[in-house]
Each structure stands twice: as C-alpha cells, then as structure tokens.
Amino acid sequence: MERRTWSPKLGDLQTGKRWYIVDAEGKTLGRLASVIAATLRGKTKPTFSPHADMGDFVIVVNAEKVVLTGKKETQKLYTRHSGYPGGLRRRSVREVRGSHPERIIQSAVRGMLPKNVLGEAQLRKLKVYAGPDHPHATQQPTMLAVEPWAMTEG
After folding, report:
1. Of 86, 97, 126, 151, which has fewest CB within 10 angstroms of its CB?
2. Above pLDDT 70, what percent of the chain?
3. Does the residue 137 lie in any domain?
4. 20, 57 in Cβ contact below 8 A?
C-alpha cells in the first residue's frame, strides 16, 4: 500500500474566514506577534498549506499598551530610507508609540510573514487599533486564545 502526502488544492479549501480579536494590553510584543502571524497564515488549521492563503482575520485593540522587554523602548530603532542621499530616517519605539502605536505591532507581524505576494495578502487581514474601539463589530469576532506562555505577569 502506497502512502502519499496529501496537499490541499485551492478548490478544496474553505473560503470562509473567521474573525478574531486580541487585546494587546500587557502582552509582550514578540510573543503576541508570533501568535498573530500563525493565525494570519492559517497554521492553526489542520488543512494548512504554505502555498495558499488559509488564514483568518485578526483585530488587535489597545496596541498602544503592548509591552517590550528590556531597553527596547529606547534602543530599538525603526529604519527607513527615501532613496536619496541623506534620506536615512531612524525612530525609536518611544517615538513611534507616540505618533502611530499600531505600526509597532504591524512591523513585528510583517517580519514573521513570508516576504512575497502571499505574505502581503496575509498582512492585509491584520487590523490594528491603538485604542479599545474598532469598527468590525458586525463580523462578530471571537477572542483569540493567546497561550499563557505568551502573556507577561503583571
């Protein structure tokens, strides 16, 4: 009897995407981002296939209250370059948190997704909000179970 690895085709996949909500208050950034990235990719589903977008939507609220360990608040830098001479811009986490706190989580999750068109499509299913309110109540999101190891004490 010959056994073969089954790989789901795009027609075999469920098209219904679920919506999850995560409260980032008091959660460690990297641990939270890894749970979110796995959900966006669909790795929590038994029919996961790396070549297909099988993941669900994730809503993150209270992004401004996410926790970074150590001295990352002042020492971690976000770097971008305009392409022109002298166009290098560096901002610390504290500066980014003051102006656009949702970009901290988006950047962490982006780094954990594939660097291709599929990863960009998966990142579009991430909705991050600085405060506790979000406009996705009609999707009836359920709480995403963030494992106890992904939470910080206190």
Report:
1. 86
2. 92
3. yes
4. yes
Q: How many CB atoms lie within 10 A of CB 67?
A: 17
Distance (Å, whole) CA 36 – CA 108: 10
Round the average pLDDT of the chain to a whole number and report it. 90
Cα within 13 Å of Cα(49), Cβ side: 15
What pLDDT digit, counting tens, does each position of 76-93 carry?
A: 999 999 999 999 999 999
Dihedral-angle region of residue 109 (phi above 0 means left; psi in -120 to 50 means alpha; beta otherwise): alpha
Mean pLDDT calculated for residue range 33-52: 90
Structural domain of 61: 19-145
pTM recorded for the entire structure: 0.88
Query: Model confidence over 123-132: pLDDT tens digits?
Result: 999 999 999 9
Q: How many domains does the chain have?
A: 1
Return the closest-CA partner of residue 65 out of 36, 91, 37, 29.
29
DSSP string, 50-68: TTS----EEEEE-GGG-B-
Asked whether residue 5 is assigned to any structural domain, the reply reads no
Residue 1 falls inside a structural domain: no
